[in-house]
Specification:
Blueprint: E1 15-24, E2 27-37, E3 42-46, H1 53-60, E4 68-73, E5 76-77, H2 83-88, E6 91-94, H3 106-114, H4 119-129, H5 146-158, E7 164-168, H6 176-193, E8 196-201, H7 204-210, E9 213-218, E10 221-227, H8 228-231, H9 235-242, H10 246-253, E11 262-263
Parallel strand pairs: 3-8, 3-9, 6-7, 7-8, 10-11
Antiparallel strand pairs: 1-2, 1-4, 4-5, 9-10
Length: 271
């Protein structure tokens, strides 16, 4: 039995963020963020530039320390664990800039990520999910197209067989046709490895295609959450939340609680 077909855990939350605030130099960028992701689930974190998406990811991945609140990975607090430790514990981050070694070949980038003794095995699994990388194995990462570089960045993250895969702005700088080839890869990873996937994306339509649930950030707070199937029928509410128009959110939901609006199937409104 290959590792791709091996049994995987099927219950409990992989990631549980509870009322987390985080920022830089003592100033909070995100405030009291709460979100969860289950095994095999894809969740989108949406919002305009400056909404706090990347700061949220940095805190989850251990790159910055939360100011308040708690982050739990598979039921255990991540407090005090470094980014390197969290990576060993199953958290993989694909950053916005992809963070590739441009002077190394595609194969060398994968092997650097795999560590000792697992190079061939890890490479084979990555190529199962990303077969287009096969033709790139001998080429330097700096010579790859933008789409190929993004595939390689995702492939490097997969080498460690993560429990939580975080992808920051997958579509950045890529043609829509390339993004349409990449999105099914995330669905494949979530379904076949039971990996929890958190996708940060500015393009709402693209995120809605791949995610089962979404959280919308505005001004550093979660202002809307729900199943993407329900959110798609609430385009006016998404637009208001996305651009931080909290008065419009309150008017559309009929709620005075402007910091957090879960959308249930029976209350979702068509635009």
């Amino acid at each position: 039995m290959s590792k791709r077909d091996a049994p995987v855990e099927t219950s409990g939350q992989i990631l549980d963020v509870t009322r987390m605030s985080a920022g830089y130099n003592g100033l909070a960028v995100v405030r009291e963020i709460s979100l969860t992701i289950a095994p095999g689930e894809i969740v989108a974190l949406l919002g305009s530039n400056g909404a706090g998406k990347t700061t949220t990811l940095a805190a989850i991945a251990g790159l910055i320390k939360p100011m308040t609140g708690e982050i739990s990975l598979r039921g255990t607090s991540t407090a005090g664990r470094s980014a390197h430790r969290l990576a060993r514990d199953g958290v993989a981050l694909v950053p916005e800039d992809r963070a590739l070694f441009h002077d190394l070949t595609t194969r060398e980038n994968l092997r650097v990520a795999s560590g000792r003794g697992r190079g061939n095995e890890s490479e084979e699994q990555v190529l199962e999910f990303l077969p287009e990388l096969k033709k790139c194995l001998g080429r330097k990462a700096g010579m790859l197209s933008g789409g190929e570089q993004q595939m390689l960045a995702v492939g490097r993250a997969l080498v460690g067989q993560p429990k939580l895969l975080i992808v920051d702005e997958m579509s950045l700088g890529l043609a829509p046709v390339v993004v349409e080839r990449l999105l099914p890869v995330l669905q494949d990873i979530a379904a076949k490895l039971n990996t929890a996937v958190l996708v940060v994306e500015q393009h709402v339509a693209l995120a809605m295609e791949v995610a089962s649930r979404a959280y919308v950030l505005a001004h550093g707070r979660v202002v809307l959450e729900g199943a993407t199937a329900d959110l798609r029928s609430s385009q006016s509410l998404i637009a208001a939340s996305y651009f931080g128009d909290l008065d419009a959110v309150e008017a559309l939901t009929g709620s005075a609680e402007t910091q957090h609006h879960p959308i249930e199937p029976e209350t979702a409104k068509a635009p």
